[in-house]
Backbone:
């Protein structure tokens, strides 16, 4: 499996039957993981935390005031903008990219403005159908999560349960317009980068909002959400990540199709969106030292790799060639994989925005 990016999927492909078997095996691994892990979760130990170079940027929305963290390009330009989306266990104080990595500085040095929306656990950055409830209980009425484990998280009244998530509208309208009006940021030809849960979300945002996003990157995502068993796995993962109900996200087939990059791949081709698609091998690298976290990260990354390879095959079928693929020989489902991956794609990102 090559470590260098391959363009247009001309190298590194395998028969679809072999990848279907790989996907089934990986999905089985994910479903056997203990609560505390998830098929689209994120792992890692905090490295960077609050970066003083950034500032809080609050924007009103249908969900109430939402905070983003903004980092200005070193040369002061306002036309080169990238959104960094968080993973499934997104926190309410800072975006995981800021907590776990130092990529903001690299992007600023490349004269790119960085926008990190904060919050949106289990959201898939989508407009949900209704507020999320669990077992019919009203939002906020269940006992709180006092242990921090996934098993007790399903009984928490966590963020997003008392109102309907409207993250697609927030990113593509509320936040976009506020950045334009208050900071002068260009609302067009932006980039969007996602990891894990937000890998498919980045592709969704670019597919349906091509005037805003000319570049989209999925890293260790699940861009083929129609894989048999994947919806059940996502349901289990969302319950584990705060007790969110997937039926509040997508209760109809048309909604699932709106979220599934394999379904709307033809839109990405028609838009001529530049894509970067990546997933690692699920083989631990040098920075993966925690035994339990490593085992969980291997299983989840195996799912992401299988789904990503299936998506690669799908793009070949529809004839989408404006894409770079990268499949590192080592790496599991954590920030140790995603930080260097973003640094690696930086030249490609830089040349396709603004």
Residues:
């Amino acid at each position: 499996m090559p470590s260098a990016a391959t363009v247009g999927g001309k190298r590194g492909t395998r028969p679809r039957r072999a990848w279907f078997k790989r996907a089934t095996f990986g999905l089985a691994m994910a479903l056997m993981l203990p609560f505390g892990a998830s098929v689209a979760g994120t792992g890692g130990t905090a490295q960077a935390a609050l970066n003083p170079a950034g500032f809080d940027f609050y924007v009103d929305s249908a969900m109430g005031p939402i905070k983003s963290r903004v980092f200005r390009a070193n040369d002061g330009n306002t036309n080169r903008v990238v959104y960094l989306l968080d993973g499934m266990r997104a926190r309410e104080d800072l975006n995981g990219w800021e907590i776990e990595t130092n990529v903001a500085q690299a992007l600023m040095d490349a004269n790119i403005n960085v926008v990190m929306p904060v919050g949106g656990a289990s959201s898939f950055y989508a407009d949900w159908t209704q507020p999320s409830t669990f077992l019919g209980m009203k939002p906020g009425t269940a006992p709180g999560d006092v242990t921090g484990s996934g098993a007790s998280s399903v009984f928490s009244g966590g963020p997003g349960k008392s109102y309907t998530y409207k993250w697609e509208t927030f990113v593509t309208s509320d936040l976009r317009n506020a950045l334009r009006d208050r900071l002068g940021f260009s609302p067009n030809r932006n980039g969007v980068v996602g990891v894990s849960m937000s890998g498919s979300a980045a592709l969704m945002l670019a597919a349906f909002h091509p005037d805003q996003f000319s570049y989209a990157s999925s890293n260790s995502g699940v861009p083929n959400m129609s894989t048999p068993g994947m919806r059940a796995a996502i349901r289990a993962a969302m319950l584990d990540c705060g007790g969110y109900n997937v039926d509040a996200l997508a209760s109809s087939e048309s909604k699932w199709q709106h979220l599934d990059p394999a379904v709307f791949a033809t839109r990405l081709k028609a838009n001529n969106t530049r894509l970067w698609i990546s997933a690692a091998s699920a083989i631990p690298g040098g920075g993966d030292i925690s035994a339990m976290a490593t085992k969980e990260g291997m299983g989840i990354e195996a799912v992401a790799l299988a789904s990503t390879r299936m998506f690669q095959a799908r793009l070949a079928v529809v004839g989408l060639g404006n894409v770079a693929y990268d499949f590192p020989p080592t790496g599991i489902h954590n920030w140790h994989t995603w930080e260097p991956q973003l640094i690696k794609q930086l030249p490609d990102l830089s040349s396709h925005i603004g």
